[in-house]
Design goal:
mainly beta; about 120 residues; about 0% helix; four-stranded antiparallel beta sheet; globular; seven-stranded mixed beta sheet
Length: about 120
């Protein structure tokens, strides 16, 4: 399984960015896909996730601002980030979980999002 993110970059506070994550390989049994973020020196934290039945879950700090979605093939997941804040600056990672434990859990390389004030 390969997980490749794209779409990070620099935005101003109040601006928007859209992250994409393309999954290839064994995709037929994916249970959930999600976005995590990590600031240097801090633990990574869940931003949003979406289950195979399209149920979405959001961290409180992005509710109402970020939207997670998935294409019909369920091999690409997006994170639409609106009303960005400087504190959203982090490396964002895509996660793919087959629901079978660590061997079925995959991460992308990360994409940097920088929000200037």
């Amino acid at each position: 399984v390969q997980v490749v993110e794209s779409g990070g970059g620099l935005a101003q506070a109040g601006g928007t960015l859209r992250l994409s994550c393309v999954v290839s390989g064994s995709t037929f049994s994916i249970k959930s896909m999600g976005w995590y973020r990590q600031v240097p020196g801090q633990q990574h934290e869940l931003v949003a996730s979406i289950l195979s039945n399209n149920t979405a879950n959001y961290a409180d700090f992005v509710k109402g601002r970020f939207t997670i979605s998935r294409d019909n093939t369920k091999t690409t997941v997006y994170l639409q980030m609106d009303s960005l804040k400087p504190e959203d600056t982090a490396v964002y990672y895509c996660n793919v979980d087959h629901g079978i434990g660590p061997l079925g859990n995959y991460w992308g390389q990360g994409t940097l999002v920088t929000v200037s004030s």
